[in-house]
Amino acid sequence: MSPLTRKPTFNGGIHPPDNKITRDKEIENLPPLGNLVVPMSQHIGAPAEPIVEEGEEVKRGQKIGKAQGFVSSPVHAPTSGEVTEIGSFSHPSGSEVKGIKIVPDEKDESVDFSGEDPAKLSDDEIIEKIQEAGIVGMGGAAFPTHVKLSPPEDKDIDILIINGAECEPYLTADYRLMLEKPEAIVNGTELIAGLLGVDKVYFGIEDNKPEAREAIERKASGSIDVVELSTKYPQGWEKTLIHALTGRKVPVGGLPLDIGAVVQNVSTVKAVWDGVKHGKPLLERVVTATGTIPDAGNYNVRIGTTWNDLIDQLGGLPKGETAKLIDGGPMMGDTQPDMDTPIVKSTSGVLALGSEPAVEREPSPCIRCGKCVDVCPANLLPTSIYKSVEAGDIDRAEELNATSCCECGSCTYVCPSEIPLVQWIVQGKGEIEMREEEE
Ligand code: SF4
Ligand code: SF4
């Protein structure tokens, strides 16, 4: 058991109401619901390419999209059935991407999952299994996990951090996983630590989840330092988490790898264990369905299930009470214009917000109160960046390190003038990126 005498945290941040109304809801396995739409792009990197044809019968776990290169990830059929369409479908990011529609045959017949004792596998074989299982960062970033666990040779990695913060309001999927599946998470942690050859493993959990911390501690060996973090948003951002736990700072424009750290989210770690030990590809994930959804809870949902089918199963949206649908949490999630959007590998939450919290107000001029500066976890000047972007001065926005913004929305949350600071900053980041691509 770790001596829990300290509660590390970071400078800045906010304390929004946590609204974790589903924290006591056990994870429930849902069967395939309706027709499934499996996007070929559910990760950062090259989209997968379909390897099945319309009319073909597929089984649960069968690979249906092949990775295109190392920074890419394959996709698998989440159930058995017929491929009825290969075309363009809406994606939670708001874009249209290539995808495969499967009409389930209701047999849910699987291919054989052949797992292996990880102790008998070489590092290269483990990495190959992680890629073949289609595992990507499930905390939101969706970076292919096999790439993140293959640091360049010139990077000396000595710390692994497991992110159990789940600092976004409403979300409880990771909390429930830590509570209900601690052994698989700890086994996955030890597997990854061995692969990276690190000396030190921190497991960070906010102090509003004592039951989850106790569950992980009971399974963790002495090599894992389970650390209780102060509850504060955005504690789960990689850079704030690393700094809180290790005192190390990721340089501006740099990555955790640059200071010897790799961070993995708890859902991803469990998927790695399931993929390597049990040979099971990423076909489903735990999603917190919450807000105005009648049967709010934590559900193990097949990838490709549409919002429509999931919400229908959970009682439908109450008439007139829902103003906004968000993939993820209310702070960093993506607003969904379309109920045909599928659940993807990075969907941690299906959030229906009522008219009160989703209401948008007219911004008024900045009163120079400095609150946005005080809360920024990246030590930026949100007000100055927003003014530069508004004035079209992208050079200045770049000088002010706009690209270091993690888009946590803390500045917007505290602004008494209701200025949508994060939207301006995201626009500035996009313009900086576009200019770099043109150069
Ligand atoms: S500027 Fe970016 S990182 Fe800083 S508080 Fe605003 S959204 Fe968060
Ligand atoms: S919080 Fe809003 S009003 Fe205050 S300085 Fe920042 S932008 Fe201006």
Write up this protein.
This protein has about 450 residues and is α/β, with parallel strands linked by helices. Among the domains are: about 130-275, NADH-ubiquinone oxidoreductase 51kDa subunit (Rossmann fold), CATH 3.40.50.11540; about 370-439, no CATH class. It is about 25% helix and about 20% strand. It contains 13 helices and 17 strands. The chain has helices at about 125-130, 145-150, 175-180, 180-195, 210-220, 240-245, 265-275, 305-315, 370-375, 380-390, 395-400, 410-415, 420-439, and strands at about 30, 35-40, 50, 55-60, 65, 75, 80-90, 95-105, 160-165, 200-205, 225-230, 260-265, 285-290, 295-300, 325, 335, 350-355. The protein has a six-stranded mixed β-sheet, with helices on both faces. Strand 15 and strand 16 form a beta hairpin. The longest helix is centred in the C-terminal third of the chain and has 18 residues, at about 420-439. It is globular. The model has no long low-confidence stretch (mean pLDDT about 95). One iron/sulfur cluster binds near residues 376, 382 and 410. One iron/sulfur cluster binds near residues 380, 382, 405 and 409.
